[in-house]
Amino acid sequence: MSSGGCGNCDGATSDAPKKRQRVDTNHCLSSAIESSPYSLHPVASACGGGFNDAATADVILRLHPDRGTPLFVSSDASSDTKKLPATTVDRPEIQLHLHSLVLRRSKYFAAFLSERWQHQDDFSSNNSGNSRKQYRFSLSVPETADSIDNYLKVLQLLYSDDLLSSIGSVSTVLSILPIALELLFEDCIKACVKFLEAVPWNEDEEGKILDLIPLLSDQESKELLARVSPAKSDSSEEMLHGLVRTAIYNSPSMASGKAFVVKLLKDFSSKELARRVLYKEFEKNLRIVKQAMEEYSSPDFRANRLAPEAIQKVNLYTAMNYGKHLLWLVERMLELKVADSAVKAWSELASFTADLHKAFHEGPWRNMLPGLPSVVLRCTSKLANAVATGSVLATRQVRMNLVRDWLPVLIICKDKDRESVSSPMGPNHKTLYLELEETFLRIISTLPMSDSQDLLQQCLRFSTRVGDDCPHLVAAFTTWFRRANRPQQFESCE
Fold first, then answer.
1. Burial (CB count <10 Å: 0-12, 13-18, 19+), residue 88
2. pLDDT above 90 for 186
């Protein structure tokens, strides 16, 4: 019998992919087994004895821990066993009494038991002195702690007709599947794969399974790969988009679900993917709010409707609801520091801010939906503050447009608030106004003096009857005049 095993057969090269090696080995062993009169799938009970039954066994298999030796070696005195290095594992070797009829369920054993590979030294008469062949093989196993135990499990499974009932956990599969693959025990491989397909895995187990998948055939690994490999290249984006939409559009009773999505976004590995998903939904909600306010402010739209007041109310509610979605999305983008595109988009809303100015100048919204100005101003305040603090590095044009277009909205809201006995925007409106005023003034200080001069004049509306109540405005004008009165030290290049 060849001491090198089937690994020396033609076609199984050391640098070939693992899956290819297994296919080649199967082919090599199958050719050796073709001449065997025995079935590869016998019923274990047909051998007339059980596992390690010395009375009926016709194979003596020695398991011994050893490193760097062939999988199979002959244990005859005249064989190469004498040349094997001494084992360094404390566990003693194990001698098993097995049955060739059962061992043939493994293609590896079937090949060694086939007539093509048998040599006189590989078998002897039994102790009773009759002529029944008794094979003697030696099987070296890796020097890991549980290696011999795992090989024993696989050899015992050769005697089982119900392999799945013997597999109770993923850890069991991970310990026996590599051995079943080595011994080409196909029934065991199928049972292990079937078990893995049906049960959940933890992260550590998944990593080990991924290491084993290359050793399986395409058909065997198909379902396992389907679990861990996305069907489409954009599956992650699609899933995240679905979660964001669920968080936004579900009822308030799903607050815990929204909180979970917030945490998921904070811990998400790809900021670029999160940016694309959040901005896509931001664009959609902004478009809906713009359309609703355009219809609300359009005299032509009102004239062509049978119930203009009801339609106005619907438009305001639409703007309010989707405005809240916008605010949530803005907060998420700012948390992840991916709000650059949102800031730029918010600075390009001249027609939208004109519609808002017109709508807030009129009275109906105060009775229908008084909280709407607060929502849009909070979005503006958060995005503008990101620009003022440098969290978002905006261009000069974006900075100027952001203040120029949104400053009139802030002013009209503040003016209307002064005219009312009680603010329709709630108790925190003064804090919101002040925060946005200070933010706009900080942004104005970053602009060229010609631009800041025009914008600062509009900011006079920030002042109150008592000048001491607006130190932020005083500081802004003081800074501007200090710069304006500075002697010109640099000449512009022509």
1. exposed
2. yes
